[in-house]
Amino acid sequence: MTTFRCSAILFDLDGVLVDSTRSVERQWRIWAHEQGIEGDKVTTVAHGVRAVEVIRAVAPHLDAEAEVRKLESREADDHDGVAAMPGALDLVHAVPEGYWGVVTSGTRHLATERLRLFGIPIPKVMVTADDVAKGKPDPAPYLKGAELLGMNPADCLVIEDAPAGIQSARAGGMKVIGLTSTYPAAALGEADLVIPKLQRIQVSLDGGRMLEVSVS
Q1: Strand, helix or coil at 45?
Q2: N or C: lower Cβ tally within 10 Å for the chain?
Q3: Is 206 a catalytic site residue?
Q4: Domains recognised in the chain with CATH numbers
């Protein structure tokens, strides 16, 4: 049993609360085919990173913002194979309101649609691709999440499934639990702890204002 004490939990969305990996990869491959780009070149860098940054890297000649709107509109409509992650609803309901938020590389529209689709509560604090100038692995997204919650970054715990997100949280001075839903454990080595499923996590509020997060 490993126990973390923290002031708040910041969740990544895709691959942590929502299993959308197949939809994300499918839509990126369709987009890449349309642009005459090798699909693997895109999908190997796309997960956990803002779409606008991926497009700027692989197709700098395109209007990245326009392409993001097109791509994420398709993703929002693509529900095939998309589901809530096992244990996600129970876990977020176990965390008191005001003690958690979502930090995602997707747009606010896409994030909201995915949360609503599965009845996952939309937190008061949600940092999306629209809210930061630099995305993961830069620390800005998670630092913004801590700021909006009114918490010290060092007192926040992050749950992530992607190396870029783990790097972002660590660069912000936060503890990280890595989830092997998208990448193997070997790719998540920078996390403080790596687990295979959310059901391993139990959350309780101690006598003060701190969360106690126990991982079996």
Answers
A1: helix
A2: N
A3: no
A4: 2-20+82-215 (3.40.50.1000), 21-77 (1.10.150)
